[in-house]
Design a protein that fits this description.
This protein has 4 helices and 4 strands, in the order αβαβαββα. By secondary structure, it is of the alpha+beta class. It is globular, with a radius of gyration of 14 Å.
C-alpha cells in the first residue's frame, strides 16, 4: 500500500456482492483499502467486466483512472486468477 500512496495512487476494490459480503471480503482478506459493494453489478457492467468468464461475477480487472477521471490504463484478466502484479500496476500509473 505504501508504494501506491507514495506514487499518488489510491486503491479501491469493487465487489459484485451486497454490503455484508463486501465487509466479509475486507475482514477475510484483512485489506486496508475500501471494498465497495456492487450488488446489482451496475459498475461492473459499466466497465464491461461483468460475467465475461460466464461465472456470474466481475472478471478480475484493474483500471487506473487519472486525475481527470479518464481510464489511463486497464487490465482485464483472461481467467479467475489472471491478475497483474503490483509492479505492473505501478509501472502503468500516470506520472504526476
Amino acid at each position: 500500500m505504501g508504494r501506491f500512496r507514495n506514487a499518488g495512487a489510491e486503491i479501491v476494490t469493487i465487489a459484485v456482492q451486497d454490503q455484508a459480503g463486501a465487509q466479509a471480503s475486507v475482514d477475510g482478506a484483512k485489506v486496508s483499502y475500501p471494498v465497495l459493494a456492487d450488488s446489482d453489478h451496475s459498475v461492473a457492467d459499466a466497465y464491461g467486466v461483468y460475467n465475461l468468464l460466464g461465472d456470474g461475477v466481475a472478471t478480475p480487472s484493474v483500471f487506473v483512472i487519472n486525475k481527470s477521471g479518464q481510464i489511463f490504463w486497464s487490465f482485464i484478466g483472461q481467467n479467475i486468477s489472471d491478475r497483474p502484479g503490483n509492479e505492473t500496476i505501478l509501472d502503468n500509473l500516470p506520472s504526476s
